[in-house]
Automatic annotation (TrEMBL), chain A:
Protein name in the entry: Uncharacterized protein
Residue spans crossing the bilayer: 7-23, 38-57, 69-88, 108-132, 139-157, 163-181, 193-215, 235-253
Alphabetical UniProt keywords: Membrane, Transmembrane, Transmembrane helix
UniProtKB/TrEMBL annotation, chain B:
Organism, scientific name: candidate division WOR-3 bacterium
TM stretches of this protein: 15-34, 250-269
Top-rank taxon: Bacteria
Keyword entries, A-Z: Membrane, Transmembrane, Transmembrane helix
High-level lineage: Bacteria, Bacteria division WOR-3
Protein name, UniProt field: Uncharacterized protein
Automatic annotation (TrEMBL), chain C:
CDD domains in UniProt: FN3
Origin superkingdom: Bacteria
Record-linked PROSITE patterns: FN3 (PS50853)
Organism in which the protein naturally occurs: candidate division WOR-3 bacterium
One Pfam family per UniProt: DUF6754
Keyword Transmembrane included in the entry's annotation: yes
UniProt protein name: Fibronectin type III domain-containing protein
Domain called Fibronectin type-III: residue spans: 16-116
KW Membrane (keyword) present: yes
């Protein structure tokens, strides 16, 4: 009974909404919006649950005088100040975000916005370290990823194509060096000729590829973004959508019950 | 030799962070930029707005917050300048309640600069919860969602809103997106009601929105700081986004240099093993 | 001569639009009629069109009611304020200055609600096919074990929990920014159940900071159930599952703080993520934790692949609960999904061939497959 009733509600709601997708006639046509409205109202109340949990968690830390208790105290203090200040501005100006309210002018503009922007700007540093660590030529797939990342990174910024010949020169010189180092210990004449030949070809290709990229890099970058990237993404979207359908069917039919108590 | 290659394949992340910081800060302080051509999707957006008849109503949706402000706020301001220059009427609303004050700040600032009058040239409607419900109801009658503006003034008393009932009365919708709301705009406003849409977004979200531009479901797409810089260039009003382009180019080059150094170390160590 | 031309220009009325056709707007809940017409031959010189409507009341037509003023060049209007089963007719006035001319009346149109959305027929057919595959594989699942390929990220869960136990560090499970209504969050919860059970078996703590209050409630129960299933309900600590913040970057900052202070041995990032994904993944990497991520957010997948040790890509996350529990019914849905995907691939290839032929032969008949799948 404890699980039976919620499962029955889940099944009926899911079934009705699927049917409603195909029937524009009332009351089915507006069911999706109505369910959305109900969800918004209910979820508004659940925020109270969350705030209670947050305050209780930090209050427990202060009460037990744990190591990080001062930070918990700072959180509770900030919570109270924000709440009271927002209520005060709301009462005085009708809306805490009214142009003349001190809440907007001081708290939001000089505390909230800079904090949020700072957290977001951490991404610039993290992407640099993640790219440095992840883009290694471990195998064929990783090398293709590395090359396309390099092309797109330079192709999407102004004047990036002007730098591309230098990167090409460095890359092909390195390839030539690796080929020569591979050739030297080889005993077989054919293998030596092959690797030396590859080294020479790498050095020769610097100029034409450098010129090609200098003129066509943005187009190549756009092509990578608009064709293979988009194709792969669409394939992923289709897979994810089908996965979501399978998961939704499992939930509606009661096979998946993890969300229930 | 082996230690050298080990060091370069595992450079301390703090060194990387320091170099990133220097290479972003110096160009922004020097404020030197270079010429570049606008992307086609940005040009499309610009030209669509250019072709709008005087007096057309444009709905702007603020769907970003303070975290995305550095990317989208300069673009919002330059687009508002464009819209007001062409005597288009601006209606602003949003789905991210914490970002709406940013939209309001930009709107008030540019409206003051361009000497526009509230209620006649621009209106700020505010926020209503619901995203999909809001979009669907706006397609039937805007007053079902926004019967008053952000100050509580009935919108029927605002001259701009007198004949505005639904998407049929709105020539263009511009969404400023930092999340997934852009998909909802296309799904509900464009697909169901045929609303013309231009989407602007952070650089991370832009690839998600390219399919819509390719499928001609949106009139233009302005992604990231590059899109903002392109728009500033087209409008001949170079600002923060334009000067940020130099920093962006340099940082991309620096990251590529690090990647090459890391690969040299990686390949050398593999050969030694 | 000029005065005559000016007289003609100013005082001769413009030609009206013609061929006004009014029809019930298809595939809706009623209340809408769409009106189409051919532009006035004088369209380039007129100021506006005004569209008028008359309603039939007790057998008589009402006085014309102004609906909308439309700019020149418009040849379509959607009247969204009609009553169902009431007769309407329309006419359009072309105006130039103070002079105008009216078109003929349109045909009589009646708005009504549809019982079936014809444009979604293809969706219904696909849904029936999905259900058919599902039923077939459910029957097969009862007779034999269905094969699913190896998913490395899920196999690594045991390794990750074991590593944390050896180090004497807790686990950290991050459910992302989704709400309970979002399927990635439910998929994340099913993985959390499995991880909690393992944590109970290995006697290691699990910390679950939550973004959404409803998800927090569900997560609490999930973790408790996991420990109960492991036979160690005494190890469950209520304070380890808590609501952290409803703000994206506040949540990311809080999780980063937990990572740096608690130094978990393994971090699970399973759910729907936005821009904070790389902040979380890189911080986790900097403390040396083993990281298993999974998301359906396509924009965040590259960051997870670059920064974490194992990544469940898109539908692999949805398959997690079936993969981990080996429940026959769940496996049947995965198999059914895969076969539908194969069918979609065939349809896409067929569509590609047909559209190419249509382009080369300029014959619009070959667009039938594309038209069939066009859904509103």
């Amino acid at each position: 009974m404890k699980k039976g009733v919620p499962l029955f509600i889940t099944f009926i709601s899911g079934f009705i909404l699927i049917v409603a997708l195909f029937i524009p006639h009332e009351p089915f046509g507006s069911l999706q919006e109505r369910f959305n409205d109900w969800y918004i109202i209910v979820s508004g109340f659940t925020l109270i649950l969350g705030i209670d949990s947050l305050l209780a968690y930090h209050y427990r830390k202060i009460k037990r005088k744990e190591k990080e208790a001062p930070y918990s105290f700072a959180l509770l203090l900030t919570f109270i100040i924000t709440l009271l200040w927002g209520i005060y501005s709301g009462i005085k100006h009708g809306n805490p975000f009214a142009p003349t309210s001190t809440f907007l002018r001081y708290f939001y503009t000089y505390v909230f916005v800079p904090l949020q922007a700072t957290m977001f700007s951490l991404l610039a540093f993290f992407i640099a370290s993640a790219a440095y660590r992840a883009f290694r030529a471990r195998g064929l797939n990783a090398t293709l990823l590395l090359i396309s990342a390099g092309i797109v990174m330079l192709g999407r910024v102004p004047k990036g194509e002007d730098f591309s010949p230098y990167f090409i020169a460095v890359t092909f010189i390195l390839i030539a060096i690796v080929c020569i180092l591979e050739a030297l210990p080889r005993i077989s004449i054919y293998e030596r000729v092959l690797f030396f030949g590859l080294a020479i070809i790498s050095l020769i290709l610097i100029f034409p590829i450098g010129i090609f990229l200098k003129t066509k890099l943005p187009l190549l970058s756009d092509w990578i973004m608009n064709v293979p990237q988009l194709g792969a993404k669409r394939g992923l979207f289709i897979g994810i959508s089908l996965g979501a359908i399978a998961m939704a069917l499992r939930i509606i039919l009661g096979i998946e019950r993890t969300y229930l108590k | 030799m082996k230690e050298f290659f080990e060091k370069i394949s595992k450079i301390d992340r703090r060194i990387i962070y320091l170099l990133v910081f220097i290479s972003i800060t110096i160009p922004l302080l020097i404020k030197k930029g270079f010429e570049f051509e606008a992307l086609p999707e940005v040009k499309n957006a610009y030209e669509f707005i250019e072709k709008l008849p005087t007096g057309s109503r444009v709905l702007i949706s603020i769907d970003y917050d303070a975290a995305s402000m550095p990317e989208l706020q300069p673009l919002l301001e330059v687009m508002l300048v464009h819209l007001f220059k062409k005597d288009l009427k601006v209606i602003m609303m949003g789905h991210w309640p914490l970002g709406l004050p940013l939209g309001q700040i930009a709107l008030e600032k540019i409206a003051k600069e361009m000497k526009k009058e509230y209620g006649r040239d621009y209106v700020f409607l505010g926020y209503r919860p619901g995203i999909a419900a809001v979009m669907l109801n706006m397609g039937k009658e805007i007053r079902m969602v926004f019967d008053v503006d952000y100050k509580g003034t009935p919108i029927d008393s605002l001259p701009l809103m007198k004949n505005v009932h639904n998407y049929n009365d709105i020539a263009l919708l511009i969404g400023f997106e930092a999340g997934a709301v852009g998909d909802y705009w296309v799904q509900f406003a464009q697909a169901r009601y045929g609303q013309k849409i231009i989407l602007t977004s952070t650089a991370v979200v832009a690839p998600d929105l390219y399919p819509y531009f390719q499928a001609k479901q949106i009139e233009g797409l302005i992604g990231g700081l590059r899109g903002a810089a392109d728009y500033e260039n087209l409008l001949k009003r170079r600002g923060f986004a334009y000067s940020g382009m130099t920093a962006q180019t340099i940082i991309h080059v620096i990251i590529l240099i690090f990647i090459i150094i890391g690969n040299i170390g990686f390949i050398a160590l593999r050969r030694i093993k | 001569m000029i005065k005559i031309i000016l007289f003609l220009f100013l005082y001769i009325p413009p030609l009206p639009p013609s061929n006004i056709k009014a029809n019930d707007y298809p595939n809706d809940a009623g209340g809408k009629i769409e009106i189409k017409w051919e532009l006035s031959p004088s369209d380039s010189i007129i100021d506006n069109y005004i569209i008028f409507r008359q309603e039939e009341i007790e057998g008589k037509w009402s006085l014309p009611e102004t609906l909308e003023i439309l700019p020149r060049g418009t040849n379509y209007f959607l009247d969204s304020n009609c009553k169902n089963k009431v007769k309407y007719r329309y006419f359009i006035r072309a105006i130039k200055g103070e002079i105008w001319s009216d078109s003929e009346f349109s045909n009589v149109a009646v708005a009504h609600a549809e019982w079936f959305h014809k444009k979604r027929t293809s969706v219904l057919i696909l849904l029936i096919i999905i259900l058919a595959f599902l039923l077939y594989f459910v029957r097969r699942a009862k007779k034999e074990e269905l094969f699913i390929r190896k998913i490395t990220g899920l196999d690594a869960i045991d390794e990750a929990v074991g590593r944390s136990t050896e180090l004497g560090r807790p686990l950290l499970f991050i459910l992302g920014l989704g709400t309970i209504a979002e399927i990635p969050t439910i998929a994340g919860l099913s993985i959390l159940k499995r991880v909690s059970k393992k944590a109970g078996e290995y006697e290691v703590d699990i910390i679950v900071p939550c973004y959404d209050p409803v998800v927090f409630v569900a997560a609490q129960e999930t973790v408790k159930e996991g420990f109960i299933e492991a036979g160690r309900p005494d190890l469950y600590k209520e304070g380890n599952v808590f609501f952290l913040s409803y703000d994206q970057f506040g949540y990311a900052a809080g999780c980063d703080g937990i990572m740096v202070r608690e130094r978990p041995g393994a971090i699970f990032l399973q759910g729907y993520f936005y821009a904070e994904s790389l902040i979380l993944a890189e911080t986790g990497n900097s403390i040396g934790a083993i990281q298993i991520s999974g998301t359906t957010a396509v924009t965040q997948l590259p960051f997870f692949i670059a920064a974490t040790d194992y990544t469940l890509i898109g539908e692999e996350m949805y398959a997690a609960s079936a993969y981990l529990t080996r429940d026959p019914l769940s496996l049947a849905t995965i198999k059914g999904e895969d076969y539908v995907k194969a069918l979609l691939i065939i349809i896409v290839i067929a569509g590609l061939i047909l559209e190419t032929i249509a382009f080369l032969t300029k014959n619009s008949l070959f667009h039938f497959l594309k038209n069939f799948f066009e859904v509103i």
